Amino acid sequence: MDTVQSTLGQVNIASVIIFFAFVAITLAITYWAAKKTKTTSEFYAADRSISGFQNGLALSGDYMSAASFLGIAGMVSLKGYDGLIYSIGFLVGWPLVMFLIAEPLRNLGKFTFADVVAYRLKQKPVRIASSIGSLMTIVFYLIAQMVGAGSLVNILFGFPYEYAVIIVGIVMIAYVLFGGMLATTWVQIIKAVLLLSGATFLVIMTLAQFGMNPITLFEQAAIKYGDAVLSPGGFVTNPWDAISLGIALILGTAGLPHILMRFFTVPDAKQARKSVFVATGFIGYFYILTFFIGFGAMVLVGQDTVSSFDKGGNMAALLLAEFVGGQFFLGFIAAVAFATILAVVAGLTLSGASTLSHDLYVNVIKKGKTDEVGEVKVARIATLIIGALAISLGLIFKGQNVAFMVGLAFAIAASANFPSLLLSIIWKKFTTKGAVASIITGSTLAVILIILSPTVWVDIFHNPEAIFGLKNPAIISMTASFAIGIIVSLLTTENDAADKFEDEKLRTYLGIGAE
Fold it and tell me: Residues 312-325: pLDDT tens digits?
């Protein structure tokens, strides 16, 4: 049994000071951004004034969640090499986004990905269906983040779960409500810089314990826990599960509404591609760091100590920070982890508010007939609704095991959003009925299968055996979504949509007519 001691769970003054300094700085930015946020373009897309490099940093800040930082480092610390499958899955979706999605999305869309899917199809049915896929992804992602925030703060700072959920909710509502996309972007940029800096220092201080030689670190891990920690097969034993998980992580990235929305903040398609290139570099660098952090915790803190604080290993990075840098460094890393959640939920809230106001209210209820002032007002009301919903869900799901919800969000994004988005861009014969059938099939099948999977049916409902054998449904639900979308489109004809395809190609690849 390892005997490393920790102050986790006690009030850490450094954490509290650093976190509130972050909140004070970001609220000052929000005050500045609020003066520049009057029109719909300013609220949803920061008036398309963000550069490719800035958007790349913001994308990485939006994407690198606390689940990534704490979860993957913990998984590597307990499972070794197999923790890398999540890192790779999260990373390799980005080149796909760069080559398939970024340019068409920026050229065809305005504020949400539903703009692209509905570009040459019938607006009302496609936007309603797209909104279902978007909101399901956002809500499941939000629940995981809010419950994670409450649990994390309870462990890190030692004050009640409910306080944490309410603080996170109020601060992120303030970011989005007053500062819109401009404030959200800068919150994500600051968070990304803090997270990358903190993780880099943590790795440097860890490697210093091994003569700055990573090989020595891995040799020590093998000596302490056997060669198996350096080999695959310790975590994902079913190859179909590995493939399905890989599909969800890789293709789900290209269907996450809050990530896709960021491509509308840059001035043109060139900057959109540049932002994905920059984001891929930062995210790849970050996941390499989590691998070293995980192995560092395994060797220096020990698997027994890591699992004694959290059986999933989520406290591994924090325990390692305290081991190599003392209480102040623990406080810094803990505050960064909390700030990470704030930045991600702000992006999710803005995306949800855009779906409610731009897709449903303006384009479905008002049929596109509304003014700028009215739409921004509705967008702000929608922000309050989504924020209140996030706080409520965080309180309702207190104490529940919601770890599966991030996987579910990725599965829905890969199954409902990605097929319809891709087919609408590349396939001339794609029809409105095909799009709606594809989205509804992908989203409902993903939810049903994950309820019947071991993740929920056995782990949550405590049934002896799962009805559906795979932990992640993407291989079935995404395939079905593509198949239904293609079959229904072939069985239905939509001449208007086909006729507009050539115009769409000009705008997709040359940017002619893009906003």
Answer: 778 888 889 989 98
